[in-house]
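User: I'm preparing a small set of examples for a lab meeting where we compare how different chains pack in three dimensions. I only have the primary sequence for this one, and I'd like the structure in token form so I can line it up with the others. Please keep the answer compact; I'll paste it straight into my notes.
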Amino acid sequence: MCLLMIMNAVNLAAYPMIVKLLDTKGKEAALEYFNTYAVLLLGVSVPAVVGLSLVGPNMVDLVIGEEYKASVTMLLPWVSSAIFCMGAGAFYAHLPFQLGNNNMGIFKIAAVVAVLNLLLNYWLIPKLGMQGAAIATLLSFMVSLTLGVIFGRRVFPIPFPARDIAKIIGASVAMGLCLFLLKDLRGWLWLVAQLSSGLSVFLAAVLLLDIGGARAFIRDKYQREK
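Assistant: Understood. Below is the structure token output for the 226-residue chain.
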């Protein structure tokens, strides 16, 4: 849920500005800001999913009772991925329906996904138990995200910053490789080491790849403070 709260915070900070720009300066200015918003939204959520999946077992080992450790560790990657897809759908792919004053599109997608989720749960839970429920949830939110991308852009075309998204994935992979080497270590000190090393690698990759114009942002801020 922390992942969803972070994505929601980014949305709450940016969406009112997108609407304001759309009303005052037009579609082009709003879409330019939307592009920055999309990069920021994915730039915090994609590495969070990767990090949670790899650091999660240590966190579970520290805070969850022995009886539930195995099941929670097994479910964590599925649940974190499902939460990411839910957030990406709600805070990115479905926004065109709101900007284009076509909220019925969101309800139609929600209805389709609700039925799909029930069917998948009916099929998977008897076979896989809790893991089946988690997989059903992930698949349902993946469909919701996909439908939002396909049909939302027909209502209000929004930017898809493919180049920056590729860079974010690359930076997240670099962070993931670092965390993979540390994933079997246990304890509070190792948790701090995992989090700090993963964050350091990701931020270094952000600067190296210049994701979202990070270098220019830091340079401009430094010059203003001088």
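A couple of notes for your slides: The chain has a mean pLDDT of 88. Residues 4 and 87 are 6 Å apart (CA to CA).

User: Perfect, thanks.
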